[in-house]
Each structure stands twice: as structure tokens, then as C-alpha cells.
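Pasting two entries for a bug report.
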Amino acid sequence: MIKRVVFENFKQFASFDKPLKASGITIVAGGNNSGKSSLLHGLAVWEFAKLFIELEKGRTALNSNYNGDGIGISFDDFTPINIPSLKYLWTNLTGLNGYQLKIKCFWDLPGKPDRFLEISFSLVSERLYMKNTSSNLAIEDKIPVIAYLPPFAGITDREPWYSVADRRKLLGRGLGGSILRNTIIDMFQQNERRRVQLKGDNQRISKTALRTLRETDPYEKLNQVLFEIFKIQLHPLNFNSNFHNYVRVELSKGEIVTNRYVPFPNFNKRDIMVEGSGFLQWLSVYTYALDRNIDVLLLDEPDAHLHTSLESVLFQKLADLSSENNKQVLMATHSSEIIKRSDPKLILKIQRNQTTYLVNEGQKVALISGLGSEYSPILNKLQVHRKVIFTENESDWGIIKEWFRATGVPLPNNIVVWPNTFKHDQRKQLFIQLREAIPDLKGISIEDRDNLLYEETTTTLQQNGFPDWINGDGFLRYRKWRRWEIENYLIHPSSIARAANVDENAIRQFIQDNFGIIINGNFIQSDRIDITRLLFDIEGKILLNAIERHFNINKHQIAHVMIDAEVFDDARTLVNEISAFSNL
């Protein structure tokens, strides 16, 4: 399919020339305004122009050595993508005259050199002209059929029956929603004809033939996946073009009983359009992915209306389908779930100054964390200060700042805090990617101990067997709380009592009655002894949540009233290290 695309003066790309994986699924990812949609839009515009030229001037107008004039179209008739004016197709809205906007696609054909077709555009008096300006096509060469599906915006309540040519035209204009029922009914009718052929003169289809049909037929596979995910089956209504003006597809919900689908008795069939956006998004994407008339499917944020739990399922289904049917799928997404679960070699990272497929997991971590956006505020600050601290969330840093206040140590203003839920090894991969742009970057990664054994920690908060990563002038230090999590360092009866405005004995008694813990001895020390064992190993969030509910306070109020004598040894160790770190 499409193995290389070249843009000149198209939207984000004044110049763009990149290879694409010619089959299977490609995840197009990057920051906001990086050009993800522009890549898909360029291919959609190329498809629209190719189809329009062929319909108006014939197939020969796309072949090599064609020297005819361009053909014009008004803004109202230009529908592949949504733009306020035709001039927004051009980079910086300049160079509108003289066919200076060009989109060129290369694809492979068995037994032949790569085929290519370049279509150029010019804007004259609010009319868009387009023509073939470079091609090596012969009349018999197949040209890929591309379908662009923007974020789903619903379907019409009355959908006419369209001819195959009209459907191609509407799909080429990015109007997949307006022919969704047509496509489903077409699949259904092909399935019905196939069943008649397989049955022949017999009373029923053989088990072997029926199994093969269910494994390969697009309509069968569509209903299978809809039942698997939504417990839904489609029911296209009988359509006869001699009597009916509109087509209808209804759905039911049910269950499998003795290997047969049985609708729920109290569920009345209804038109597909009344279902939620998530279902319609899935139905639209998967229907066109199964359509054998489409070679290349462009999906612009197909996860937009989907719950997180369905995002990765959609990706896996599309990946399997594209592999089985030799279909090319380009899927632009912001979904971190999809990116996390994808092979990095399937991810095309789009940036203004660099567009490339990833090669390792480290690059994927960096992309998820926002490295793909060159205007990220965090990155801008890092380039200035060159020091980063990774915390598990912003709340943790809020507590650490209160310990600076309590101990009287000045809070550094030259450190960038980057909250994320990654573990040390993932943060290392992100850090290495950051160092490509900031060679002398230094960092500290702070983690809760969670299930790690206490014996694997030290009074310096370094983890046994997990040495700091050092490279040249840069380093990443790994620090692990000795107690279960950062909230354990707020379990101080005096601080809690002050925040709740109650007697300290009431706090001690509440903890003893509800958690069986008697707080005595030097419980703020770094080393664990028998009388402090439970305070080290209990999940601090659980205990603090109980205190917050009972005394109507929160953990940040507790941290805010802590004084120097109430700061735990481990917290003091970290405060001092961060202070020294800021002076490097």
C-alpha cells in the first residue's frame, strides 16, 4: 500500500518526505499541533483529488505523461476535511497560485517498480484547481483506495441507498457516517448470497463450510466482535431499491444459549443511531476496517469516544484485522493506553523537526510523558535549570515542600518537578531520552516502598542493589521511602491533633482502636525497631484516610502544621539531599 508520502506546502508541512509501513497498523503519535492530523489530512485530500479527477476527466488523467489542464472545484464541494477556507490547505497561507501545494504518494504493486502519483493544487478566486503533475501509472495499475474517518460525529436519521460509485465519492469526502448503514447492508447481502451458494441443494450448510464462513466473512466477523464487546447483534432490515427510499439497521442485545444467540426478551430492537457515541465510534471504525473495497484506513483519534478499557481492545482488534486482510491502517491518537501497549516499532512519532518510527521502549516512555511536544512547559524549564525530580504525583511534592518549611531549609527555585506514575527503570528511559536534548541533565527519582522489603532500603533512602545511574556530568539518583509510602511520614499524633484541633490522646486512641497500633518510642527515626514495625509496614493512605474522615481534615493540613521536631528522619534526609542537589 502507501509506502512513502511527500508533501510540499501542505498545512503543517512546508516540506515532508517520509516512508510509511506499507501494511499493518501504524500509531501516529505526538504532541498537540505536531502534525498528526495533517499527515492523515494530506492522504485524505490526495484521495479526494484523485477520485475527483478520475470521475471528471477519466482514468487516463492520472496516468504518466498526462499534460491536460487542471480541474476546479468550489469550497462548498470540497469535503474531505473540515477547514474554514481553502487557503488553510497551504503552509502559512501563502503560495496559493501556481500549483505550489503538492501531495505525492508511492505504493507497491506485485511484480512492478513502485507506483507514484503526485497531485498539485492551486487556488484562484476561491476555486481550488487540482491536476496530476507527476505519475508513472499505466491504465491497468491499481491505485489504493483510502478512507478517512474523522472523530465520529454521528449518523443521519434517514440514510438513502447509494450506488457503489456514490459511496466511494462520499467516503472520499470523509463522510463515512453518511453511508454506514449502506456498508453494513452491503456486507449483509453479500453474506446472504454466500450462504445460498454454500447451502446449494442441501438442507443446511455443512459444519466445515459454516465455520469457514464465520471465520472469514466480514459481516460475520463484525457481529462477532460486537457481541464480544457490547453483547450486541445487528439486524439489517430488508431493502429493495424498487420500494424503499431509506435503509435501516437495527440492533438487539442478548446472550449465547446452547451455542446460539438469543435476544433478551425485554429488549426491543432499535435503530443503531440511538446507541452511545462509544458504540457508534467502534461500529464505524470496525465496519470500514472490514470493508474489502478499502485498502488504506485513516483513523483520526478513533478512541475519542471510548472508555479507557476499550481503547487497547480496539487497537488489538484493528492490528489483528489489518494483518489478516493485508490492510494498511494509520491511527492518530493521544491515548497513552494505546501507546503503552503498542510495539514501539509500530509508533510513528510526529514532530516538527523530526518524524520517525520508534525503535525501543525508552522512546515510547518519553513520548507518553509529553516529550513529543516541543513546546512543553516542563521541557522549557528543564532546558533552563537542568535539574529534575520525579515524584509519583503533585500531591507528594506538596508534602515535601511543607517539610522544607518546617525544617527551615530554603525551598529551591531551580528544580523542575515532573510528577508521573512510572517506576525507576521507566523513569531512567525517559531521563536518557531527555539527556539527548539536555546533555548535563541531573535528576532524582522518588518512589514509595510499597511491596518492597524494608531490608532492601537504607537510611540514605538508596535501594540496595539499585545503584544510581551516572553518565558523564549527569546522573539519576534513585530514592526509595523506607516506610510503605509517603503518607506514613504524616502519622504523627501531635501534628494530626493540631490540624484537627483535638487532644493528642484522642488521635492515639483512634489509631489504637482502629488499627491496633500503639505509638510510642522514637517513631520518627529512620531505622525500624520492634515497636515501630507496624508504622513502617502499614499502608499509610488507608490509615490517613480513616483519620481524615473521622476528624474532617486532610493530609496537606497535617503537613502544613508540622514543626521541625515532628519531621521524620527519612523526610529530613530527602530535604537535605534536594537542597544540596539544587546547588550543584
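Entry 2 (this is the one that rendered wrong in the viewer):
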Amino acid sequence: MKKWKSYHTEISNQCYDAIVIGSGIGGLCTAALLGLKGERVLILEKHFKIGGWPHTFRRKEYEWDVGIHYIGQVHKEKSSIRKLFDLISNSKLEWSSMDDNYDRIIFPDKSYDFTAPREKFIDDMISYFPKEELAILKYMNLLDEVARASKNYFSQKALSGIIGSITYPFMTRNFFKYSDTTTLEVLSGLTNDPKLIGVLTGQWGDYGLPPAQSSFAMHALVARHYLDGGNYPTGTSRRIAETISNLIEENNGVLAVNAPVKNIKIHNGNAVGVEMENGDLIEAKNIISNAGVVNTNLKLLKNSNVLTHSLNDNIKNIQQTKSYVCLHIGLNASAAQLGLKDTNLWIYPGYDHDKMVQNYISDQKADFPVLYVSFPSVKDNQWEEHHPMSSTMEVITLARWRWYQDWEKLAWKKRGHEYENKKEKLIEKMLEVVFKQVGGIKDFIDHKELSTPLTVKDLANYQRGEMYGIDHSPSRFRQDWLRPKSHINGLFYTGQDITTVGVSSALFSGLITASAVLKEDLSKLLTD
């Protein structure tokens, strides 16, 4: 396991072409690409580990993911996602393929398997809903249409100035046909079967909004992403940050943890550097924020008097995603002993996802609107080698910030008995559901630990424990300002806020941002 170097003042005395605030996958990708083009980059990470969501934590012999559960398409060496990962990791990042049955959508009356490849998925859906064959085939065609339309939409984000203004209406028009409507509206136009709609939207937790609220474009991009199967980083998800950071360092870049940035320094309307919380000033010609657009503007720029009325209005037009809780379980037996598989489980109390979410928001005693169960130790081909006779699970469900804000001013792990009792009751309720779907594990639970929205705030710096940055509603995709180049010269954004949720999308935000910084189409690197 790589040891990360903490920030020290000597770092501020060196020269850099670019400073990246935050070490999530968008920031890492941006830095790696700039490094490959000869730029010297400094990454400043507030947390004590590099990686953002793609990092892990340990308790005893157990190790869990913070944010990665599966990734599509990387098993195909010619896919653009795989090519980009290979480029910025110097081909050192390896992947473990999951079972073809990557997701199981579970309802009280029946379970439905999502199985690769695409043709198998289609055949299975038709076997589950034989009267809906035409609707299913039309749905599959729509997924492809969204994917084609998205290429120009996201490529346009790297453009700015007159060229950006001229190309915007032409490069976005087709995508808006799909992003402007909700998932439920599109599927209701294909079928009257509520069960089919409930099944096809069974991965809504991957993007954080149920069907009546989410943009169909977001749903389509996620659903299509996994049609040929899921994969997991070999050696756990921390290998993503480790391999990419090695490349950055090989190109004379610097990464520092325990490095909180206080302000972005503005001079004559230009971003010229950052001020650290200890008072150090570090200068660079370009500042790139991977801290999220809300954090960047309302926290890192709050003392600079550069927020315009239009930008304030823009921020009011977006909604931050809701939060979640995650139960991390350590089992003192191997997956083979316990009969565990790597298929993700999506457990639902009913087919109407929007209704189930509303019921739970209104009453925490109601059924969980979703329980997502993942088995990271089973997904990793190297797990047994490094963690013999042990297994891990993760169980995730929705939460709200207001349910935990009474304890927000108390320190991590020092929030008192009332807080711990609240968590323990929630753990018991979650396990009660899990035990019905995953048998034989109860007597092997050696460790269980629940993270809450307060944990997310402490460790990921999301101020209200947000799960996925900005809500992926239809209006989100109409926010033209969510692009790499900010309203301040020399200041750029990267990360999921300028593209969409997910590791793969955040990865490509790095490609888009690096292209915008250098004013060069770096996607050509993937075709060489």
C-alpha cells in the first residue's frame, strides 16, 4: 500500500504550471494528462489519502471501498475508457471481471437478473416480460441513441469563447431531446407495465434519483455502460490512485495529502495561485478545482469578491444530491466458504421507486426505498492472496442530512452515545433485510461499521454529505456553465459536476479539462 506524503512549506517554494485542488479521479486524470504534455502539476488533497472516492480504508484485516463498486467497458482493451485508464496509469492498472450476472434486481415477489452480454440482457428481459418485446427493443435502441448524442454534448464542453458559443446549439441539440425528459416519462411512452419500468430502472441508485426525477439521458448512459458486464480494480480500488499518481510523479508532478486549501488567490481578475490554511501562498498559471463547483465558488472564492449575480443565479439553479449511509461488514471466512458471489443486489420493497423514496423520506420507520449490497472482496482477483480467510460486504441506502445534523459540530468518532445508538438501530434494520437475501453470514460477522452523511462531510468534504455532487435532473444538463473553463481567467473545474456521476464520467472530465487548459484536443491521444 502506497504511503502518501503530507504537505509541508517547502512544497510552496517550488514552481508549478498548474495546481489541482482535490485528488478525485477527475483531478488525477487532469494532472496526469497535463504531465504527459510537459506541464509540472501540484495536487493538493485535504484528506490523508489520495484518490477521492476511489480510495479504500482498513479495519484489522478488512479493506473496503469508499465509492467504487463496479465499472463497465474496461475489460475491452479498445474501449475509450480502457484506453484512457491505460494512458494515465502507464498500463499498470489491472481489472478483474465480474460474473456475467452483474446486477440482481430484487422485489418482494420476484428477482430479475441483469446479465451480460447485451444480447443475453435483451433475451432475459423479453423472457421476463414476453408481451413487452417491442417496448424492450425500442428501449435498447434509445440507449444507443443517447450514447451517440452524448459524444458531441460532452466534447463541446472543452470549447470556449466564440467557437464555444457558435458550436453550442448544434452540438447539444440531439442530446437535449433525451436529457430534457425524465426517465419515467420516456419509459411510460414505451410501456404501460409498471413492473417492467420498475425493473429497467432498478439501477437508479447508481445516479441518485428515482425515475420521475432523473433525466433519461443519465439513466441511459448508466444502463448502457454495464450491458457488456462489470469490472473491479484488481488489488482494490486504491490501485486507481496509486497507479495514476505514479505516472504523475514520473512526470515531475507533486502530490500532497493533509493539504487543505483556504482560498483561491485572485489578482486583477485572474486566478494566480492558492492560499493554504497555514498561510502559505503557492502560485501557478492555471488553477484546477476538483472540489465541486459549489465548494469552489462558495468556499474557495468567498473572500475574492468575484462572484457575479449571474453565477449566484446559476448556483441557485442546481440542486446537490441527497446523501446516504453505508454499512461496511467484515466476515471472518472466505467467499468460497460462505458461498458469496460478486453479483450486486438491489433490494426494493416495491416497483414504484418514486413512491418508495417519498415514503421513506416522510417516515424513517418505513421500508428502505433501496438497499444496495456489494461484495468487493469477491470482485477482486487478488483478495485471497492479500486477505486470506476473510470477506467484505457493503450495504448502502438513502439518508438525509437533516437526520444527522444535530451532531455535525462534534468531531469524527466522538459524537456520543445517542449518535452511536441511532446508528446501531439502523444497522440492525439493514441487516434484517440483508439476511433474507444473503444467507449463512450472520455467525461470521466480525466487524460492522456505519458511515453517515457526517462521515462523508468529514472525509470527502461534501458539505451536506452529498452522494453524487449535483442532481442529475433534466435541468442539470441545461446548465451551460458546468464546463471546465470558469468565469475567471486561469481557473478551471474538473470532476463529475462538469460531466456526470460515476468514475468513468469523472475520468473523462479530466480529459475534457486538460483539453480546455491546453487548448488542444487530447482525445486524439486515445486514437494514436
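Dev reply: Rendering is fixed now. As a check, the viewer should reflect this: The chain has a mean pLDDT of 93.
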